[in-house]
Amino acid sequence: MTVARYDLLRRALWLGRVLRSRLLQPALMLVTLVVFTLAIVTGLFGTPAGSRNFGIVFVWIVWWALLIVVLVPLFGRVWCMMCPIPAPGEWLQRRAIVRRNPGRPRTLRKRWPRRLKNMWLQNIGFLGVALFSGVILTRPSVSAVVLLAFPLIALGLSLLYENRVFCRYVCPVGGFIGLYAMMAPLELRTRDCSTCRLHRTKDCVAGNAQGYGCPWMVYPGNLDRNTYCGMCMECFKTCPKDNITLNLRPFGADLFVSKSHRLDEAYKAFIMLGCALLYSAVFLGPWGWLKSWASLESLPNWLLYAAGLLAIVLALIPGLFRLCAALSDRLAGHRAGSRFVTYAYTLVPLGLAAWIAFSLGFVFVNGSYALSVISDPFGWGWNLFGTAHMPWTPFAPQLLSFLQVGVLTGGLLFAASMTVRFAGDGMVDARRALVAGLPVIAFQLVMTLAFLWLYLG
Amino acid sequence: MRRLEGIAIALVLSVLVGLPVATLGYQYVVRPAQSEHRVIDIIAYAPEAGGFQPTVIRLTAGETVTLRFHAADVVHGVAIGPGLGIDLGHIDPGEVREITYTFDQPGLFTYYCTTWCSKDHWRMRGVIEVVDPASPDSLPLPERDPIIDALAAEGIDIDTYPDGGPTHGGAHPARVRVSTGLTPHVARGETALTGLTVPDILASLEWRRAHTPLEALELLAQENADADRARLADAVAGLWLSHTPGQPAAGTVASYNANCAACHGQTGAGDGPAAGQTAEEPAAFRPDSMLPMRSDVLYAKIQRGGMGTDMPNFGTLFTPEETWALVDYLWWLTFTDDP
Ligand code: SF4
Ligand code: SF4
To answer: Total domain count for chain B?
Structure first.
């Protein structure tokens, strides 16, 4: 299916120049590296009170909200262009920060195991962080250790493997960014794939004097989804045919590329949706005991919480969904194998909407902490910009509910329309497609109502 | 490109190394060096998580220090006593309150939490040892309290006076409760006293502090044989607070609310929010239990704490005057119970 696209670079020539500059990525990374380093130092040495510690406030409130509310839904993987986590490893591997070093990358050139060339490690990593989120998100020192571990693992992997193996297969954040980047109305694509096919040297893969071969191990000529392109913009520099561009396109266009639908990605969608539900219950719900279970106050209670979380996210939600998908298949008269995995992609808009609503909730409520920690990042009584004593003020509580309802409803409508489209695949009768989609839509509706209840109830 | 690369490397190193060195160096080297006196950071955790850290601070008499209190986990409050009048008020988690103070005399002082921060809140204390610069190695000794010494000399065990206390559930013999049926009220005291013959001894504050209202009642009854007992009890209530200005001082009420009310209840009914958690039932300041009680014993219990009852010692926090003011407030609560 073809969708309308608007080539941003046809008009904005300056944008092309910016994207081709070797300075762009390192400059952005330098900025995020400052914030990231400060987050680690404040986490390790600053106040243990999370709400007054720069590390907690800037990573888990400011960065998180920026990522999930703005960057991913609008710009896809653009965060990965500026992410500081893989930067030290990448720079060491290249022995260069800005310039294109023509020498061989410094790495042992091991081969990444075939069986791990998927999202499963990222799924496991995300669940690992989720299980300990009660402490990671609230205790600055724990948070700092986790933040420090990320670039160290990335660095370790970059010594063994060429390219961004960490980003592509390991980073727990990268997994869901990739999944939800499919929703973004921005994409990096080739202008004309026949140009790529006829281009013998494939500089975007092999690299040339202008830039490195795709560090994400993607062949831009084949790109049809945002999921695994880290928007590093190397191919802009290497492509001698000026065939790479940025397009505006409808939201969620990638979700319909059904030949790419995979179980690991489907599970990512379940995990993200389930975790959004559980996080909302733990952090925003009325159950104090659940919060204390999650925050590891007693090991047996935490084990119960962990078992519950894993059961809900890995078994209950996918199980129920499978049931609904089977019903939809039956109603559609679809016999050629279950379309469970395909239907799971309808949970991408739903899950993203839930995460946006959840994040809006805490950024509206706790965002004002950012003003005080910017003046006193360690909670040591500094007052760098005179804002250290800004009182905690929730922002526009009435507006919040409207936004949350709007976003969740939007997510549900998008998911439902996708469902009808998937259900009606190869069907002429639109009404029959709608009826066939109903079981899956019912699942989406129940989930949305659960979120609404948690946020507004 | 080579120059750019050099700049980039320098920038990256300055972030990775310079930023931590600069921030930590500013806090731990530059700031203390800029300050004219010592700055001591004290982190306040709930007692279960470690309480104040550090718990002991040693200073030299005449030394000016800045004490910076950081609340780490929950809302705490900080005051320093006895007798310094330092109350920093509430400190929200992550907030810092500081005081710069010169400790002139050698002695022992206590910084303590003034907010009910956890079940073990009252354990949350730290000590400031102010030593004499002439003999920096000898610790200032806590002063003996003449009231407590006098009680000991009299052979009174404050822990069993009048008769121990009940454990929760009441299996233990109840605290002495004279069921007099009397509910004396201080407001009726003056009227009740008019026309009564009052033995001179009752006018002595010293005597009243070392005797019980019941004893005073008996003395009054001997002199005024036909007076109604309820009227005599009202007269005793009036006498018991006759040395006070009528209404309790705001500072005393605040101190009671901050330190005592959690167990003893805001009105002294023994029903504070933490009453159920103590080793023994907190005392109620009501006529039945207070009529057989002596002020000096109350004073001693506040100053020294109650052995095995979970009643903390406040001698390290309150001066004798502040303690007497609290004792008077307990009588005021007792004698204003009847509406
Ligand atoms: S995949 Fe992870 S580490 Fe890599 S750039 Fe994206 S967020 Fe950063
Ligand atoms: S496709 Fe291009 S922009 Fe995307 S990761 Fe590869 S080189 Fe970077």
So the answer is: 2
Tell me the shortest Cα–Cα distance from A112 to chain B, in angstroms: 29
- C-beta atoms of A23 and B4 within 8 A: yes
Task: Indicate the residue among B107, B131, B155 that finishes a domain.
Answer: B131
Confirm or reject contact between B23 and chain A (CB < 8 A).
Answer: yes
- Do B66 and B160 lie in one domain? The reply is no
Domain of B96, CATH number, reads 2.60.40.420
What is the whole-number distance in angstroms between the Cα of residue A305 and the centre of ligand 1? 28
Helix (H) or strand (E) holding B89: strand B86-91
Establish if A379 touches chain B: CB-CB under 8 angstroms: yes
Q: What is the pLDDT of residues A217-273, one digit of tens each?
A: 999 999 999 999 999 999 999 999 999 999 999 999 999 998 889 999 999 999 999
Q: How remote is the CA of residue B210 from the centroid of ligand 2, in Å?
A: 89
Task: Give the residue extent of every domain in chain A.
Answer: 6-254, 282-456
Report the candidate in B292, B191, B267, B199 with the shortest Cα–Cα distance to residue B234: B191
B3 within a domain of the structure (yes/no) = no
- Indicate whether B261 belongs to any domain: yes
- Please say which residue of B131, B162, B197 terminates a domain: B131
Whether residue B12 lies inside any domain: the answer is no
CB atoms within 10 A of CB A270: 23
Q: What is the mean pLDDT of residues B121-143?
A: 87
> How confident is the model at residue B163, as a pLDDT?
60
Q: Is the pLDDT of residue B164 over 60?
A: no
pLDDT tens, A295-333? Answer: 888 999 999 999 999 999 999 999 999 999 999 999 988
Check whether residue B189 and residue B290 sit in a common domain. yes
- The residue type of A69 is V
pLDDT at residue B162 greater than cutoff 80 = no
Q: How far apart are CA B37 and CA B60, in angstroms?
A: 12
Q: Do A349 and A272 contact (CB within 8 A), yes or no?
A: no
Q: Which residues of B touch A30 (CB under 8 A)?
A: 8, 11-12, 15
Tell me what pLDDT residue A26 has: 98
| Structural domain boundaries enclosing B226 | 146-334
Residue A370 CA to residue A63 CA, distance in Å, equals 11
